[in-house]
Amino acid sequence: MTVENFTVLVVNCGSSSLKFSVLEAGSSRLLAAGVVERLGTDEAHLTVSTPTDQQEEKPMPNAGHREALREVIDFLAHRAKLPVHAIGHRVVHGGELFRSAVRIDQNVVDQIAGLSALAPLHNPASVAGIKVTLEFFPDLPQVAAFDTSFHQTLAPEVYHYAIPFDLYETHRIRRYGFHGISYRYLTGELARRLDRPVEQLQFVAAHLGNGCSATAIKGGRSVDTTMGLTPLEGLVMGTRSGDVDPSMHQILQQQTGMDLTEITDMLTKKSGLLGLSGVSHDFRSVVEAANGGNSRASLAIEVFCYRLARGLMALTAGLDRVDAIVFSGGIGEHNADVRARVLTRLKLLATEVDPRLNAEHGRSSNGLISHAGVPAYVVPTNEELMIAHEVAAVT
Fold it and tell me: Which stretches does DSSP call E strand in 18-79?
């Protein structure tokens, strides 16, 4: 079998959803993609499509990960008739144990489960998905790709918190960073677009979706990033607050009676764009409300853009120069106003937005959206393809 025909099922298990794609690792061709949403509820349902416009929607009330994966596998085998030669699993937290994608065995499963305290909403779901696919496909190679592994190149002065050192030694409390699969893809794609070796590039990139982060990349290695021990640290996000004063927890407990779990839940699920705007976690809805005169929605957008600009400038401390600024993720790829607002604030980099190129998201200019200063690019990410490539490399 040639690598072009090597077909990979990429599985991304969330706490209440299961996303999947089938790709040819060599040709990068997408063969099928879909999602099972609202797992564990009466509204759970499957949506799947193929490039040939074969589409299917199916209600799956109260389905869990096992039922969802069984239905996905049935669709691929019997209706889409797609072969699967290997399976790749996206895993959010690999701690310090995993610096790259690894072939899955029982020891790897146990290690991922053992890191659940660092990612209680994500790693248990990944373990559940891995166990099911190992049961259904015991003879297929299966690989875990980690969002944290790309950031294992961070230097100690970058990843350590200024807290008692024994908390790191005993509990591995440190900054890890996330969205690493996306940043690994963006690194290679930017190098391809600029026709320059990865080793010669130094740039800052922002992955902006419901979860948001930014990273400084030097010679193909992550040297700093905004997320930390968990994906709550850093930028303003859809429902996550990003950075706050740690004393806020005690003050809120004293003044509102909320306990620690309730405060963390509020910062994770009820803050960010949703908390500021009072409208939605979805940036499109916030923009619509702002355009309609909602002052809180306008404030949410301003805070989001300012904190992103500040984060990007802070990341340049890890670089010798800035060759490019990259925007990616749903917001980064599709919202020209956010990009313009952020770049306008980066006056020290002298980036001048080209209104026409920015409005068309750089589609006619290989992603370029600026005409002076440090060049800015829109580069769509493809985490599923990156995982498929890592699976092919490991197997």
Answer: 18-24, 30-37, 45-49, 55-59
Which residues, in sequence order, are CB contacts of 235 under 8 Å at separation 6+? 212, 213, 214, 226, 242, 304, 307, 308, 311
Residue 246 has a CB neighbour count (10 Å cut-off) of 8
Q: Annotated catalytic, 147?
A: yes
Nearest to 65 by CA among 32, 21, 113, 17: 17
* Structural tokens at position 263: 């405060």
Residue 277 DSSP SS3: helix
Both tokens of 357, joined, read 């190129």
| Separation of alpha carbons 191 and 184, rounded Å | 11
Tens of pLDDT along 78-115?
888 888 999 999 999 999 999 999 999 999 999 999 99
pLDDT in tens, 211-239: 999 999 999 999 999 999 999 999 999 99
DSSP state letters, 134-183:
HHH-TTS-EEEEETTGGGGG--HHHH--SS-HHHHHHH--S-----HHHH
Of 232, 307, 226, 304, residue with least CA distance to 265: 232
> Contact at 8 Å (CB) between 70 and 84?
no
Q: How far is CA 48 from the centre of its chain?
A: 21
Compute the distance between CA of residue 246 and CA of residue 43 in angstroms, rounded to an integer.
Answer: 37
Whether this model's pTM surpasses 0.90: yes
Distances (CA, A) of 102 to 84, 113, 160: 18, 15, 26
- Active-site choice (53, 139, 147, 320): 147
As a whole number of angstroms, the distance between CA 19 and CA 387 comes to 13
Nearest to 322 by CA among 218, 248, 199: 218
Q: Which two tokens stand for residue 237?
A: 């996000």
